[in-house]
């Protein structure tokens, strides 16, 4: 590798002390083919946080010197022809996201289990036969995608991953899901479709946060359950498992004999009495705390014939396919710094839950400035025109070029190694032939995720009704989780504004009189209007919020359906 010629892309990243580098497509693939692999200089870019090398069929291996990139937090090596991953990957102690999907891998190095900060692992679409033992050492692992492999079982310590919320394991050869699945207390999404399962453990119903399951394509012994997993919603399936199915699971314990029945009856009576005492205590506590509760009222689509619908173009499938939306009424931005607090909270969600916009992006609009119906579309950069926040109208090509130049100036003038604002998200669209955008009825682009919103629909202090959107290239559930968190935060902020507005009012604040919410109350409660997203033929894709949404851990959140 020492005789390889230098690559301009790597030289530029080194010279500018960049924190991110994206290499992809035919031009890079030709360089890899000509040089017999990656340019060795790439392993000297020790400031990199984000490295993405994708769609290069000539890339069959990564050198062990990858261990030099100790500041990497995201390593994306998907859609290549990698046959192995070096053991030295275990030295990347800061790594949070590892995507090695769509390669030719037969196994994973055990050293992956040394990545204690790893949050997301995607090894889908390979030929992997087993997961390494010791995954429990990846204590921060939240999302794992092992779909389309040859895996037959989960390691025993897999069920000790306390923060694991999403498991995508479809199209494998998994024969058993252990009852220890109940130990996955954070589990929200479980996809085991098209495997070799014969049973589903009733303990799955004890996963209190579980919102989405998929067991389609498994030949189950319980034929009624098999029929349910192919046609029923998650709640119905979990209720069936909780009841014990047909003489199985929890329910079967009641049929062990007359003596047991008698004991069971007495125990049931004691349990019932205990439950009643707990319920009474809970009721009393609820009455005491009632004034402190965050109230969110949900309006159904069926109750509002004029409700917004968003149509999703088919072309987004390979661009940024996931979207959830809703309308929020009752927010008061007029008092003091209420609007500023909201924008700060949105930025924090982007940095934390949205992974700095790498997993999801939030956009907010003044509902009164929208003209529906809306279209979630994919357009070529020259054809996408938008009035970005704080700028004049321009094409996506012009905007991206301008942002790139601003990023260059930031690095030079401030002598910084990284950039701020919109500039740190530019690499998320590198190499994309189509850009996602939300378009109104007059063909105005009002959102260009994950980069910016439009000045046309910008929220202001006078905004009373908001249209919220969350988009993702990762999963629908992530969109829902982010929207849930956003609404909870809005409820908290609105309550804070309501309470402190009254206090400030006594000191002469100009907008001190409580401003009624859209339903006429002055309690600070929010009203959420459901929004449907549909495909080009009008078939429903998702409605948000549904009954399985807004099931948060916030004890003082009261959702009224």
From TrEMBL:
<keyword id="KW-0677">Repeat</keyword>
<dbReference type="GO" id="GO:0003723">
    <property type="term" value="F:RNA binding"/>
</dbReference>
<dbReference type="GO" id="GO:0006432">
    <property type="term" value="P:phenylalanyl-tRNA aminoacylation"/>
</dbReference>
<dbReference type="InterPro" id="IPR045060">
    <property type="entry name" value="Phe-tRNA-ligase_IIc_bsu"/>
</dbReference>
<feature type="compositionally biased region" description="Basic and acidic residues">
    <location>
        <begin position="253"/>
        <end position="272"/>
    </location>
</feature>
<keyword id="KW-0433">Leucine-rich repeat</keyword>
<dbReference type="InterPro" id="IPR003591">
    <property type="entry name" value="Leu-rich_rpt_typical-subtyp"/>
</dbReference>
<dbReference type="InterPro" id="IPR032675">
    <property type="entry name" value="LRR_dom_sf"/>
</dbReference>
<dbReference type="GO" id="GO:0004826">
    <property type="term" value="F:phenylalanine-tRNA ligase activity"/>
</dbReference>
<dbReference type="Pfam" id="PF23598">
    <property type="entry name" value="LRR_14"/>
</dbReference>
<dbReference type="Pfam" id="PF13855">
    <property type="entry name" value="LRR_8"/>
</dbReference>
<dbReference type="InterPro" id="IPR001611">
    <property type="entry name" value="Leu-rich_rpt"/>
</dbReference>
<feature type="domain" description="B3/B4 tRNA-binding">
    <location>
        <begin position="319"/>
        <end position="495"/>
    </location>
</feature>
<dbReference type="InterPro" id="IPR055414">
    <property type="entry name" value="LRR_R13L4/SHOC2-like"/>
</dbReference>
<feature type="region of interest" description="Disordered">
    <location>
        <begin position="243"/>
        <end position="287"/>
    </location>
</feature>
<dbReference type="InterPro" id="IPR020825">
    <property type="entry name" value="Phe-tRNA_synthase-like_B3/B4"/>
</dbReference>
<dbReference type="InterPro" id="IPR005146">
    <property type="entry name" value="B3/B4_tRNA-bd"/>
</dbReference>
<feature type="region of interest" description="Disordered">
    <location>
        <begin position="501"/>
        <end position="522"/>
    </location>
</feature>
<protein>
    <submittedName>
        <fullName>Leucine-rich repeat-containing protein 47</fullName>
    </submittedName>
</protein>
